Amino acid sequence: MAKAVNNPTPPHRGLAKAPTGVQGLDEITGGGLPRGRPTLVCGSAGCGKTLLAMEFLVRGATQFGEPGVFMAFEETSKELTENVRSLGFDLDDLVKQKKLAIDFVRVERNEIEETGEYDLEGLFVRLNHAIDSIGAKRVVLDTIETLFGGLSNMSILRGELRRLFRWLKDKGVTAVITGESGDATLTRHGLEEYVSDCVIQLDHRVENQVSTRRLRIVKYRGTTHGTNEYPFLIDEDGISVLPVTSLGLQHEVSNERVSSGVPRLDMMLGGEGYFRGSTVLIGKTSLAAHFAAAACQRGERCLSFAFEESPGQLVRNMRSIGIDLEPWVKKGLLQFHSSRAAIHGLEMHLATIHKLVRDFQPRVVIIDPIDTLVTAGTRRDATVMLTRLIDFLKIQEITAHLTNLTSASDALGDTDMDISSLVDTWLLLRDLELGGERNRVINVLKSRGMAHSNQLREFLLTDRGVELQDVYLGAEGVLTGSARKAQEAGEKAVAMLRQQEVEGKQRERERRREALEARIVALQKEFEAEEEEAKRLMAQVHASQEVLGKDREEMGRSRKSDTNEPPTRSRKAPGVRK
Amino acid sequence: MKKPAVKKAPTGAEGEKETWELRLYIAGQTPRSVAAFANLRRLCEAHLPGRYKIDVIDLMQHPQLAAGDQIVAIPTLVRKLPEPLRRIVGDLSNTERALVGLQLRPAKPGE
């Protein structure tokens, strides 16, 4: 977990620190509480002061080999033991092992008569005795302000408290002193005057009927510390503080790609899917399920937070579209965590997520849907907290799959606007209403650091899971669903008609060509016939001329003519005859 | 452990049969604890002659005894008997308040 620390100063520089062992607190404080000095933990009743103090001791005793003394002014050791048993702390056992000493100090004003000068040496003796008996390194005084109720001489009391804190420092123990919040002061009796090294404030606020516990380091001398309010949880493992700050943009980035579980979607994302450790915002649970299944297939652990469905319901619903998650759940690779968003404040949810992520150590986290989380807080809070969450996941190199509720129109929701800058890959699912039906299209709105498709795909849920289809792009825009099918069918019909038309035209041309050829043949025949006729006439003319000639010779011979008649006359003769 | 400083046998005079058991907690021989002891003895002699017993417990030597009687302030006088248990804090220099605390004198009205 140390890599989650984003503290600007390296811990243990100059000031020695005693790790608290409280999840997250050491990260905020850069290593723990100031060693050998008192720390004031203040807050209103029921804010968790005693638990924090007790956990500090128990962790010290069990994890850091530092025994501790708990000086209780409000609860008997029996009550304390019972109260913290629910957190898994066995005080009796620790006391038996001499790792813990509990001393209940009861101060009742009506039992005490003050008759002159006194001091609080008795308290010092008891504390000293308890410390020495187990070699304690840590001390808790809870709540020393009770003394103000039991003793009436304020000047003695204040003097003695000052002496006590000095004494604790001299003794070299790391002390936690709790104090109840006053109206305008950190503590009702001004304990902050005496404890100047480190002050931690706890707060238990109820906003819109939702309670949130918060922790803030008011001051920490000699250390730069986070000044934000950090939400914290109290559960069966004690306290865990959500230490994530929104400062962290120094995380390692990975070039490794992970499949989205939908091949066509991977194609849209440069052919390889998401970057590992990136944050993906997407509108569908089914895509998240694909992604989860793909992660489990790779043998990676996946943690899924469902705010709308129970795990059983989710598994059943996903099975209906052909994604079987149950084997992965059984294998322990997939863990669901379902809860209604309204049961906690946003911060509590995020603290829970934080804690479960630490426990389960997943490579993939799914939050479905993120919008409901946002409704658990105000919008500004939500943005801040989501930033913290996303940074936290990035630092762990966890690929986060956030789903959002698909907005009915093209308009982007408020949530989208707020977190758009935080996500690396944003797959936008939109509903298109057309021809009396609603269809979904998906496109990659952005995907940092990769060449991605800018095209719309139709998003189909089949019994084999999610499928992406090309959409019809035509003069009438993007068509999907049955409109796409109708359009496609219409196109086919048109094409067929055109084909038939072409074929018809071709046939006609063929016919016309045949006709033309026929006419050519006919004309040729006609011409041939005419030619024949002409030849025949010529032959006739020849024949008749020959006959005329012969006749003239005959006539000449018969007239006994001496000379031959010039041929002109003979040529003229046939014309005359004609 | 306990250091019996003064022990006087009950005399049974004046019809008072009960012996008072008193414990004075101190932390080292400081002027204040010396004063407290002196004041206590004076009080007892004056009001409980012959029927009181004082244990002086020095927490510097017996720190483990502090928790048992819920000692916070020093000096503290604890009246173990007669019951109920009473705690009187301070060096007992205010005799009036000490007597009230020990219930040897009823508290004045309004006090």
- Mean pLDDT across every amino acid position of chain B: 81
Biggest interface and which pair forms it? A-B, 25 and 32 residues
User: Mind telling me the C-alpha Rg of chain B?
Assistant: 14 Å
- State the secondary-structure class of chain A: alpha/beta
Compute the gyration radius of chain A: what is it?
49 Å
Spatial shape of chain A: rod-shaped
What structural category characterises the helix and strand content of chain B?
Answer: alpha+beta
List the helices and strands and how they pair.
The complex is a heterodimer of chains A (578) and B (111).
Chain A: E1 17-18, H1 25-28, E2 33-34, E3 38-43, H2 49-63, E4 68-72, H3 77-85, H4 91-96, E5 100-104, E6 112-114, H5 121-134, E7 138-142, H6 146-150, H7 154-171, E8 174-180, E9 198-207, E10 210-220, E11 229-235, E12 238-241, E13 257-258, H8 263-268, E14 274-275, E15 279-282, H9 285-297, E16 302-306, H10 311-320, H11 326-331, E17 334-338, H12 346-360, E18 364-368, H13 370-375, H14 379-395, E19 399-403, H15 414-419, E20 425-434, E21 437-447, E22 457-462, E23 465-470, E24 472-474, E25 477-479, H16 481-559, H17 567-577
Parallel strand pairs in A: 3-8, 3-9, 4-5, 4-7, 7-8, 15-19, 15-20, 16-17, 16-18, 18-19
Antiparallel strand pairs in A: 1-2, 9-10, 10-11, 11-12, 13-14, 20-21, 21-22, 22-23, 24-25
Helix pairs in contact in A: 12-14
Chain B: E1 3-7, E2 20-26, H1 31-47, E3 52-58, E4 76-81, E5 86-89, H2 95-101
Parallel strand pairs in B: 2-3
Antiparallel strand pairs in B: 1-3, 2-4, 4-5
